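call fold(seq) -> tokens
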Amino acid sequence: MLKSSLLRTAALLPLLAAPACAADKDAEIGFIAFGDSGYHYGYMDPKEYKKPLKTLEEFTAAEKADAAEDYLPLESFQMPPAYFHPEIGGYVTASGQDAVARAMTAYCEKALCQFATLAGDNIYPDGATAGADGKDDGKRFEDIFAVPYADFGKDMPDFKIYAALGNHDWDTSREGAMAQVAYLEQSSKFYMDGIFYRVSPPATNGEVEIFVIDTDVMLAGLEVREAMLNPDGSEVKDTPVDQPDEWIKPANDAERNMAKWLEDAMASSTAKWKLVVAHHPLWSSAGGKFEQARVLRRVLLPTLCKYADAYLSGHEHSMEMHETSCAAATGNPDAQPLPEILSGAAAKQRPLNPNFMAYQEKTYPEYKPYYRRGMVWGFAHVSLKGDEAKVTVLTTPNDESGTPVEDFSWSFSNRP
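ret:
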């Protein structure tokens, strides 16, 4: 299944020194892709922990019960790292935010990292709340954005983290979501320009353009069914239609026409590399996101298959690399497929469902997975040079050491 250009390693590989940034069009461009990073112990939802899991045995039993409820085969079960939360008085799943932030910083000491992309769910569990949870959003932004990433990219001129919003960022209210956007818009480290925007990172000299869209708002304006699995991992058909909160639904013509904006913006771009960043993936492997993905493929693939060189997503707390056939979307059986970099493990871990994975591969011939790994913390590094992209998947151990470990690499060409 793997092309000859794909390599799988099990240990940390020697890292090559990054070449100096140059202005010629064949100079290397490098960046980090991460997502779902905002899990912080200071902002837990107390409603979820009314009965604290006071022992590791209780924590383990609860995790196994959740896995059984999701029809995960017992033989594939893995325990997540645990943390005893003193305020809750029990064990919770450990956060990898600080460890991943340190691992990204360490990796970028040797690899070229001129910018980063953040694929949403930047604040768990309910985004900024405008005080609804009794917490100050200013302090929340400092704890979740400023402190963990203070050293990340600090030695690279014009370094920015280009962010999208995810579903958790919208959980409380539109006011809360817009408060986060306002903070990131004025941040010296992060970048947003509304909930959808286009931007060319300065260090890329116009060779890269990023198109950020808000797939939570987009999906809220469309009919999306709830994702449910049968015990054998197959999809339950004709499930109820999901009912999004009113404040997430498109609020104006610009939001309602976001897909058309993306098409027009990408058509007008002169960049060599056109990258789309969004929260929701087109494919994933845990079994809980496939209905959203189905709708997004229908809406976005005609544009993505015509213009995009890669689609970067999160939402699933895993590390995955996929390709989607563009034959149906373009009417051309020889159309170049669309690569997807799913990097959603920057703070949380999620198990994959092998039965669902097998069902998905069998049912959807247009789908081609290259790499899928759950129950890890991780991120991706992307190197662009000439017409080739190389994606390196990195994990970091559960011991919270922040050591970057190269796990997989994948290469593809840009769209002609």
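Residues 1-23 have pLDDT under 50 and may be disordered.
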